[in-house]
Specification:
The protein has 737 residues and is α/β, with parallel strands linked by helices. It has 29 helices and 22 strands. It has 5 domains: 177 residues, Rossmann fold (3-Layer(aba) Sandwich), CATH 3.40.50.300; 73 residues, Orthogonal Bundle (Arc Repressor Mutant, subunit A); 177 residues, 3-Layer(aba) Sandwich (Rossmann fold), CATH 3.40.50.300; 153 residues, PCRA, domain 4 (Orthogonal Bundle), CATH 1.10.486.10; 45 residues. 44% of the residues lie in helices and 14% in strands. Helix 16 runs antiparallel to helix 24. Magnesium ion binds next to helix 3. The site of adenosine-5'-triphosphate (ATP) has 19 residues, from helix 3.
Length: 737
C-alpha cells in the first residue's frame, strides 16, 4: 500500500516504515546521520500528499533557526508548495507567534518586545542594584539562571516554596519582582515565551480546542533535548487526539545543563503509548568516521542502545594534529582548508567546531590573515553588537515606550546632556509610582532644572517624532530613518577610527538586513514588529550573512543536526574538552562524551582532530593533556599528521588529568623517550594479563586490563603503591619483570 509512493522511494525500508507509520503517536529513536530529520520531513510531506492533511494542519518544531530554515526548505522542495503556509519553527519562534496572535489573552501589550539573554541579564542586575543586594552574594548570572530554570520547569513564584531556606526565599522574591517588572514594561524573555504561551493555551479551553483541532500533527526533531516546559507544551497541543511524531537520539542529548531531559524520550513512549521505530544505517559518514564515533559513545552507560552501521567505504583515516599552541593549531586548520578549496570544494562545506566560543578568536584571526571568508555561528553575533542593539532600542521604543531596557540604553546616546542625577530622579519616580521610565521621565520634567528638562524633553520628542515619521515607511526605510534621525550613524561616523567605521558599516548592514527580511509567516503583524522579534530570537545564532561562500565556525553545541564534508574538531584537551568542570563529574562527563559524538558524526568525508600543547585562552596560558576522547578512538582509524619529535603525542594520561597540577611536560622529553612503540603487524603484544611490570614513577604492579591496539593500546595496571592506573602502553615505559 505504501511502498509505491514516490516520496518513499528515496528511503530505506526502516525509514519508509516510519514515514508511513499509522496515524498514531510515533517515536523514531536512532543514531546520528541515520536519516531522522529526513524521515521527519518526508513524514510531513507524506501526511500532506498521502493522507490529505492540509499544510496548515502541521506543526514542525526544531531547535535552531538554521535547522528550521533547512527543514522548511526540505519540505517545500518535496511538495512544491510555498513554505510560508507551513508552521515550521523553533520552539521559541512558534511560542512567539502564538503570543503575537493572542497577546490579549496573554495579558501582554500588542507591541510586547523580547528580551534576549543579555537584556535579561541587565534587567536582573538592575533589580539587584535597586534592592541594594550585593552582587558578590547575589550573582546576577545565578539569579538569572534560577529564574530561567524555574520557568523551564513551568513554575511561577507562587508555585515555589522556600523550604525554610532564606537564600531560596530571596531568589523566589527576586523572581517575582523580576516578572512584575517585565509585565510592567511589556517585555518577555526567552523562557517566558514558552511558559506564557503554554499557560495561555492551557487556561483558555477554546484556544486549546482550536489548536488541537488545527495541529493534529506535531512533529518534533531533536526530541532528546526538550526540557520540561517544551515537553508539556507538546503534550498540551496534542491533547488526547493529536498525532505527535518525534525523532531523537539519546546519545546526542547535550543540553542537560540547560534543563533538557533525555528521559523525555522514554516518557513520551509511555505517556503517549508511542510506537517506536529504530533506524540503524548511517548515510552520512565514512566507515572510519562512524567507527570512531561508535567507539567513543560506547563508553557511556545507560544508553538506550543502538548500533549504527554504514554501507559506505572506510574512507580516509581521521587526521590527528598535535599543535604547539592555538596559533599553530589554527595554521594547521587553514592549511587544510586551502587544500580543501584547491580540490574545488566550497568553503561552506568545511566546518571548524570547538567547545567554547572563546576558541573562535584564533581561527578568526588566522582566517582574516589568510583572506579566507568565514562565518561564525554563535560567536559575536550580529544582532548582539552594541551599535546594532542601540539602533534596535530606538526602533523598539518607537513601538513600545514602556520598554525600560531600551530607554536606559539610548536615553543619553548619542550624548545629549542628560546627566546621572536626572536619570536617578527618573528611576526613583518610576519606582515610587510603579510606572515605566518613559512615563516617569515625562512626569519628572516640571521638577527638573531647565537644562536637564530640555535635554530630557529632547529625547522624548525625538522618539515621538521618529515614531510618527517612520509610520508609513517601508521596513528598511524605517530602519534607515531611525539610524539617521537618532544621530547614531553620525555619532559613530565621527569616531574617526576603524572601529567607528566598522560600526557604521554594521548599521548599514542592519538596513540591508531589514531590506532582505521576510517574515516566517504571513501574519498580520506589522513588519517592524516581526523584524524586531526576529532580531531578538536570532541573536545567539547567526552573524549577518553576506552571501559569500565561507568557512563555518561554530561551537559543537550549535553544530547539532548539521553535516559537512570536512570537519575539524579542535581543542581536544583535558580541561577544555571535556571541560574542566565535567572531567570528574559522573553526570557531566557522559554529556561531554555525547558532545564529542555529536562533533565526530557531523563529518561526512574528512575528519580532522587537533589539540594544542599550550593554549592561550581567557587571558592565561594553559598546558593541558590531550583529551581522553582521543584515547577512545581506535588507533587504526587515526593517522597522525606530521608527527613532531618535540611535541607530545596525543594520548590520555589518566594521571596527568586527575592531578591538574601535575601535567606532562612532554616537550621536555628527548626524542627518544617519547618515541611511541608501535607493535609491528603480527607481533604479539608484549602485554599479558597478570604480567608484573615496573613503571618509572609508580613502581611495581600487575597488568589487570588492556584495551585497544597499536599506538593507542592502553593498559590498566594495579600498582602496589599508586593503585590502579590506565596508561598508554606506547608511552608508559613499562618494564617487564
Ligand atoms: P542527526 O542525528 O545528526 O540529526 P539525522 O538522523 O537527522 O542526523 P539526516 O540529517 O536526516 O540524519 O540524514 C543524514 C544524511 O544522510 C543526510 O545527508 C541525508 O540526506 C542522508 N540520507 C538519509 N537517509 C538516506 C537514504 N535512505 N538514502 C540516501 N541518503 C540518505
Ligand atoms: Mg537530524
Amino acid at each position: 500500500m505504501t511502498g509505491s509512493h514516490p516520496l518513499l522511494d528515496a528511503l530505506n525500508e526502516a525509514q519508509r516504515a516510519a514515514v508511513s507509520a499509522p496515524l498514531s503517536p510515533t517515536l523514531v529513536l536512532a543514531g546520528a546521520g541515520s536519516g531522522k530529520t529526513r524521515v521527519l520531513t518526508h513524514r510531513a510531506a507524506w501526511l500532506i500528499e498521502e493522507t490529505g492533511v492540509a499544510p496548515q494542519g502541521l506543526l514542525a518544531v526544531t531547535f535552531t533557526n538554521k535547522a528550521a530554515t533547512e527543514m522548511r526548505g526540505r519540505i517545500e522542495s518535496l511538495l512544491d508548495i510555498p513554505g510560508s503556509t507551513l508552521w515550521v519553527g523553533t520552539f521559541h519562534g512558534i511560542a512567539h507567534r502564538l503570543l503575537r496572535r493572542h497577546w490579549r489573552e496573554a495579558s501582554l501589550p500588542q507591541t510586547f518586545q523580547i528580551l534576549d539573554n543579555d537584556d535579561q541579564y541587565r534587567l536582573v542586575r538592575k533589580l539587584l542594584k535597586e534592592q541594594n543586594l550585593d552582587e558578590q552574594r547575589w550573582v546576577p548570572r545565578e539569579v538569572q539562571g534560577f529564574i530561567n530554570r524555574e520557568k523551564d520547569e513551568g513554575r511561577r513564584p507562587k508555585h515555589l516554596q522556600d523550604r525554610g531556606d532564606p537564600t531560596r526565599r530571596e531568589l523566589i522574591r527576586l523572581y517575582d519582582l523580576y516578572q512584575r517588572r517585565c509585565d510592567q514594561q511589556g517585555v518577555v524573555d526567552f523562557a517566558e515565551l514558552l511558559l506564557r504561551s503554554f499557560e495561555v493555551i492551557r487556561d483558555q479551553p477554546p484556544l486549546a480546542d482550536f489548536y488541537r483541532h488545527r495541529f493534529r500533527h506535531v512533529l518534533v526533531d531533536e526530541f532528546q533535548d526538550t526540557n520540561g516546559i517544551q515537553y508539556d507544551w507538546v503534550k498540551l497541543i496534542c491533547g488526547a487526539s493529536g498525532v505527535p511524531f518525534v525523532v531523537g537520539d539519546d546519545d546526542q542529548s547535550i543540553y542537560r545543563w540547560r534543563g533538557a531531559r533525555v528521559e523525555n524520550m522514554q516518557n513520551f513512549r509511555r505517556d503517549f503509548g508511542a510506537t517506536v521505530f529504530k533506524l540503524e544505517q548511517n548515510y552520512r559518514s565514512t566507515g572510519v568516521i562512524l567507527g570512531a564515533a561508535n567507539e567513543v559513545i560506547r563508553r557511556n552507560e545507560d544508553r538506550l542502545g543502538k548500533e549504527l552501521w554504514t554501507a559506505a567505504p572506510g574512507g580516509e583515516p581521521i587526521r590527528l594534529y598535535a599543535a604547539f599552541n592555538e596559533r599553530d593549531e589554527a595554521d594547521f586548520v587553514i592549511e587544510r582548508i586551502r587544500e580543501h578549496a584547491r580540490n574545488g570544494l566550497p568553503l561552506a562545506s568545511a566546518a571548524v567546531l570547538y567547545r567554547s566560543n572563546a576558541q573562535s578568536r584564533s581561527f578568526e584571526e588566522a582566517l582574516v590573515n589568510a583572506r579566507i571568508p568565514y562565518r561564525v555561528y554563535g560567536g559575536l553575533r550580529f544582532f548582539e553588537r552594541a551599535e546594532i542593539k542601540d539602533a534596535l532600542a530606538y526602533l523598539r521604543l518607537t513601538q513600545t515606550r514602556s520598554d525600560d531596557g531600551s530607554f536606559e540604553r539610548v536615553v543619553n546616546l548619542p550624548t545629549r546632556g542628560i546627566g546621572p542625577s536626572t536619570l536617578d530622579r527618573v528611576r526613583e519616580l518610576a519606582r515610587a509610582q510603579g510606572v515605566p521610565l518613559w512615563d516617569a521621565a515625562q512626569a519628572a520634567l516640571p521638577s527638573l532644572s531647565t537644562r536637564a528638562a530640555t535635554a530630557l524633553n529632547n529625547f522624548i520628542e525625538l522618539v515621538e517624532r521618529l515614531a510618527l515619521e517612520i509610520d508609513s515607511l517601508e521596513l528598511h526605510e524605517q530602519v534607515r530613518a531611525v539610524i539617521e534621525g537618532s544621530g547614531l550613524r553620525e555619532h559613530h561616523a565621527r569616531e574617526h577610527d576603524t572601529r567607528g567605521e566598522a560600526r557604521v558599516e554594521n548599521l548599514d548592514e542592519l538596513v540591508n538586513a531589514a531590506e532582505g527580511f521576510h517574515p516566517e509567516l504571513d501574519d498580520d503583524l506589522p513588519l517592524l514588529s516581526s523584524f524586531l522579534a526576529h532580531a531578538s530570537l536570532e541573536s545567539g545564532e547567526t552573524q549577518a550573512a553576506d552571501g559569500r561562500d565561507s568557512v563555518q565556525l561554530m561551537t559543537l553545541h550549535s553544530a547539532k543536526g548539521l553535516e559537512f564534508p570536512t570537519v575539524f574538531v579542535v581543542g581536544l584537551e583535558e580541561g577544555l574538552f571535556p571541560s574542566e568542570r565535567s572531567a570528574f563529574d559522573l553526570e557531566k562527563l557522559p554529556e561531554e562524551r555525547r558532545l564529542c559524538y555529536v562533533g565526530i558524526t557531523r563529518a561526512m568525508q574528512r575528519l580532522y582532530l587537533s589539540h594544542a600543547e599550550s593554549r592561550r585562552i581567557y587571558g592565561r596560558t594553559e598546558y593541558r593533556a590531550p583529551s581522553r576522547f582521543l584515547g577512545e578512538i581506535p588507533a587504526a582509524l587515526v593517522e597522525e599528521v606530521r608527527p613532531r619529535l618535540s611535541v607530545s603525542r596525543p594520548l590520555y594520561d589518566p594521571d596527568g588529568a586527575r592531578h591538574p597540577g601535575h601535567r606532562r611536560h612532554a616537550s621536555k622529553a628527548t626524542p627518544d623517550t617519547i618515541k611511541p612503540r608501535q607493535p609491528a603487524a603480527g607481533e604479539d603484544t608484549p602485554i599479558r594479563l597478570g604480567a608484573r611490570v615496573r613503571h618509572p614513577k609508580f613502581g611495581e604492579g600487575v597488568v589487570i586490563r588492556y584495551e585497544g591496539n597499536g599506538a593507542n593500546q592502553q593498559v590498566q595496571v594495579n600498582f602496589e603503591q599508586a593503585g590502579q592506573k590506565w596508561l598508554m602502553y606506547a608511552y608508559a615505559k613499562l618494564e617487564a619483570m
